[in-house]
Amino acid sequence: MTSKFRFGAGTAGGARPASGSRLPALSLAAGLLTATVALYMALVAFGNITDFDTNRQFVRHVLAMDTTFKDPDLMWRAITSGTLQDIAYVVIIIWETVAALVLVAAAVAWLGGPRRRSGAGRARRLSTLGLLMVLLLFGAGFIAIGGEWFSMWQSKSWNGLDAATRNFIVAGIVLVVVHLPGGESPAE
Description:
Blueprint: E1 5-6, E2 23-24, H1 25-50, H2 52-64, H3 82-111, H4 120-149, H5 161-178
Parallel strand pairs: 1-2
Helix pairs in contact: 1-2, 1-3, 1-4, 1-5, 2-3, 3-4, 4-5
């Protein structure tokens, strides 16, 4: 029985050029890491859908800025409308769900076996799109807008900056792996 995956020295990243349906190590790594982020985003979206109120409270408190230092020079930024807060939360859930779906499609394209040879470019593009969605959500959405504009860093009870930073770093590392040279077979 032969393995579908081939590891070893030979090209950049330690992957040998694939023959037949064998998947180079770097493509395997890109596919598995993309699948890991896809799984995480799918679980986050699923949790937010099935336990809607828990993170809705998080979004409401961050946007209302009700647990910050309440500096009058900043409080004008607060969004206290429950309707606007809920719209923001639903948009976040939709963004998470779409990112998860794009990353699942990317993982399938990376790990799709014999058809993968013609799909490495597609896999890379899908991974890039999905990972950029994750980076924008956690970097622009949570770290920049939530953390700085709504002063989430001031809250002891509703501060998601550590988790957002972890997610941003993981997605960034996977994006780098996806774009490392040497992950394609010669036929690509």
